[in-house]
Amino acid sequence: MLVVAEVENTDRDRPVDLRSDTVTTPTPGMRAAMARAEVGDDVYAEDPTCRALEERVADLLGTEAALFTVTGSLANLLGVRALVRPGAEVLCEARAHIARAELGAHAAVFGVTSRTWSHPRGLVDLAAVRELLVPDAGPYFVSTAAVSVENTHNFGGGSVQPLDSLRALRELTAASGVGVHLDGARLWHASAATGVAPGTYAACADLVSVALSKGLGAPVGSLLAGPAAAVADARVWRKRLGAGWRQAGVLAAAGMYALDHHLDRVPEDHANARALADRLADVAPGIVDPAGVQTNIVVLDLAAAGIRTGAAEVAERARAAGVLVSVLGPAALRLVTHLDVDEAGCRHAGEVLSTALK
Ligand SMILES: Cc1ncc(COP(=O)(O)O)c(C=O)c1O
């Protein structure tokens, strides 16, 4: 008899935590799947559950292979490295996770430089990319080796990259021998919002990272997917960076469980985010455009709503009332819905924030 059923997420006094979709804790069912997992030494390529997860995600994305990694940051690091030699550049949007939230890893570890374009929702700006793109800059300037796109775009408010512009980007870059990296930490969310299959998005890129720990409820795990040779090389670099792991099947089992049980419910998170945005736009017009909330992320612009209270103060008031949100800037807050916050929790958060904003 497994004891995991006792470890239920039933603490009714816990706060409504909307800081991120990474704060979820494994459900009893997921813990049971982890406890049952068949494992082996993954560095020896002998972990059947890791293999099964990698094959499943490669299949979902229509790629030859995939590599299970401990974090999305590592999947991105390995993915960009595969496309950009030291000293060359990757182009990305100014608030892309790889540019802002990976602590300069791409430069610090692999000598990758970057230039950025800006878009209020983090979307691909083809004209800007065309202007920045210099595939062969000669001996005095930096050459562009890849473009990285984030779908959905986290700091852009969970925005979905239009498929047409991803396809146009693919055409533009392919013509000049430049690679495309897709940071698809929330590619599932893009697919749920549009009905476009994950593989259709993945086909617009050379290498794709996807996460199991953002909104899908796994405690750990991302995958880097792409051609078999690139993934095999990434496996070597994963080990070189000290991130080879042994009986990782217990974690892969959580990922498998997340795909089996939590992928289909992502639209609930989108509906909750939209309802929250509707509520807040009612009490503070201009704070967010609810029609722009496509997935599970709501970014609030306090200044646009004429609210003079700072974001940190609003977050503190909300925290005191049991609702946690992220401060993105002096006048910006982020709320992220996920499987540990239900509709009632989101409604409660809407009420608490309505008061905190006054
Ligand atoms: C778009 C995006 N990419 C990558 C990551 C990195 O994932 P991890 O926290 O697993 O390193 C995140 C994390 O939130 C993210 O939002």
Instruction: Give the C-alpha Rg.
Output: 21 Å
The SS-based structural class is alpha/beta
Strand content: 15-25%
Strand order of the largest sheet: 2-8-7-6-5-3-4
- CATH H-level homologous superfamily name of the largest domain: Type I PLP-dependent aspartate aminotransferase-like (Major domain)
CATH class of the largest domain: Alpha Beta
Task: Return residue spans where pLDDT drops below 50 for at least 5 consecutive residues.
Answer: 1-12
Please trace the helix and strand order, writing H or E for each element.
EHHEHEHHEHEHEHHEEHHHEHEEEH
- What best-fitting shape do the alpha-carbon axes yield? globular
Oligomer description: single chain
Q: How many independent structural domains?
A: 2
What's the mean pLDDT score?
Answer: 96
CATH topology tier name of the largest domain: Aspartate Aminotransferase, domain 2
Helical content (DSSP H or I, runs of 4+): 40-55%
Cofactor: pyridoxal 5'-phosphate
Protein name: L-threonine aldolase
Pfam families: Beta_elim_lyase
GO biological process, one term: glycine biosynthetic process
